[in-house]
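Most newcomers find our protein records easier to grasp once they have seen one. Sequence and backbone structure share a record, each on its own labelled line. To make this concrete, we reproduce a full record directly below:
***
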Amino acid sequence: MSSQADTWRATSDAADLRRLIRDVPDFPKRGVLFRDITPLLADASGLAMAVELMAQPFRGKPIDAVVGAESRGFIFGTAVAKALSVGFVPVRKPGKLPGATRRCEYQLEYGRDALEMHADALRPGQRVLIADDLLATGGTLAACCDLVRGSGALIEAVAVLIELSDLDGRARLRGCPVFSVIRY
């Protein structure tokens, strides 16, 4: 199959997935249009297609591990890791991992938060794909990038199901290549 045909298929498949994402106005607060992926998650073929479209650009690339932040990053990260036949590294809220951890604090719209990863989860030089459901303002994914970099591992790319382009989260990822299946 040609590259042009592959691009058309991916575009067509992404359009099919878009139909499985529900728009919820004024959630979690007035003026916000929430993109609800739970109908997509409940649809077996939709979920399989979403994972395949996230994994496909990285097949045959030198990926050693997939990193994902709780909770929806666990859903897509573990599935993409399985599709690529590599391990998965969880990034969690503080106090959820036993043993020594690396910690990264980051700014939210209203306050601060933090994420942690096991200190020995990645080795220097490992090539990592970071996976999540959504790139919005980029705070969570930027914290994941900082944790990966702090371990000495290399970020090959960030793969997300949905990117909210207007929020310019890519800018916070400091040059990490970003692959998004669906862009709003």
Q: What stands out?
A: Residues 1-8 have pLDDT under 50 and may be disordered. The chain has one domain: 3-183. Residues 3-18 form the longest helix (16 residues). Strands lie at 22-25, 33-36, 65-69, 87-91, 101-108, 111-118, 127-135, 154-163, 178-183.
